[in-house]
Design brief:
Helicase, Ruva Protein, domain 3, 14 strands, disordered C terminus, 21 helices, Rossmann fold, alpha/beta
Amino acid sequence: MKKGKILLIDDDIAFLTITEKILGYAGYRVDTDSDPADAIERADLGDFDLIITDLVMPQIDGIEVIKSILARHPHKKILVLTGNATIETAVEAMKQGAYTYIEKPVESDRLLRKIEEVFYFENHSEEEALLIDDSEIYVGESPEIAKVLKMAEKIARVESGTLILGESGTGKEVIASLIHKNSNRRNGPFIKINCAAIPESLFESELFGFVRGAFTGAIKDTKGKMELARGGTLFLDEIGDLTLLAQTKILRAIQEKEIYRIGGESSVEIDFRLICATNKDLRKLVEEEKFREDLYYRINVATIHLPPLRERGEDIDGFIEYYRTEFAKKFEKQIPVFSKEVMDCLQNYCWPGNIRELKNVIERIYIFGEVNKEVTLLDLPAEILNNDHSSLLRNENNMQYKDAKYEFEKNYIEKMLIKNNWNVSKTAEEIGLSRRNLHEKINQFQLNRGGFNDSGR
């Protein structure tokens, strides 16, 4: 069975000869060319399913080959070959449109797996390339998150050091998991470590494992996270919190691709994809000599920046709906109706804790809320009700003075009423109005507690 037609470009004749035979035995039709200029013309004429090109060639470099071919055939799939010293160039090649890359020296099994991976994604639609199980997770639909998912899709195809940056609660672990599920290691384990949560004294045993008798309580041989991640992905969250000593041990392990269990005398081979995440500025930590520069470059070949929730306001409604449904199932309650005021408040809140904070707010509503009762502002935490980042402040540059004054007064009075549980007398005294004037303001702004009765207040 014929698998596909490949054009192989490299100035190393011996490499071309050997690789052509390997790919031919595997069932591929292969054309080779040691002249990149000639290869560009052949790419125009030949119906190639995949083009494999070296990056470093004397006549024309691989970047120019990629640009020339994709300028005329934007949908061509190109796999680039790179040495350790040109990883950054390989990443640049992907930015120019290359599909993926593989490091030299090229092992035949690894090359065949990479080619199979390219053809696997080629046989699936663009929409299916990044598989997201909607029943498990919601990531958002805003343009900002769409860019993140597009980047994650590209990164999933390669095994370069990947660093996910973003504030706490933005969903860094979710993105790491999606990269794993869409990589060629999807059938392997996804092992995660929160570097900030493990005491320094336990970090080494947690990461590398230990042998029986290595220390008090070591009653049996135990694999560490690096060993457990064999064939899969190791996710190091909050890597910016590691000590320099821990950083050194991790760097050695990923460079040597082997570890020693605590108390062990023989090395253990490790094989995993590494994804790291942090909410810290690692570049600044490097300058302050608090983070190893060599480790920084090792883990930061491909970078994803996750925007905070306040910068992707279009996703807030979707997350609210997602967690409303999730907690309705968890607590076996009906999905409550949120009043318009509640939805407005949630949409205009700045969410300093990001998605994690929003999730906690929705869960709190389910825990303390009453069945069959509309969710009102009184059901929201005080920090949201006292939020200074209201819609008024977000849009103040586009408002007339009288409109800004109206909105401020309305929001101020409503928040003070909520603070005092809608006790009009207490609120009027606190803000310096008579009860009559406050009632007039309530009517003017059409403020309604929802079932509010002022009797005796």
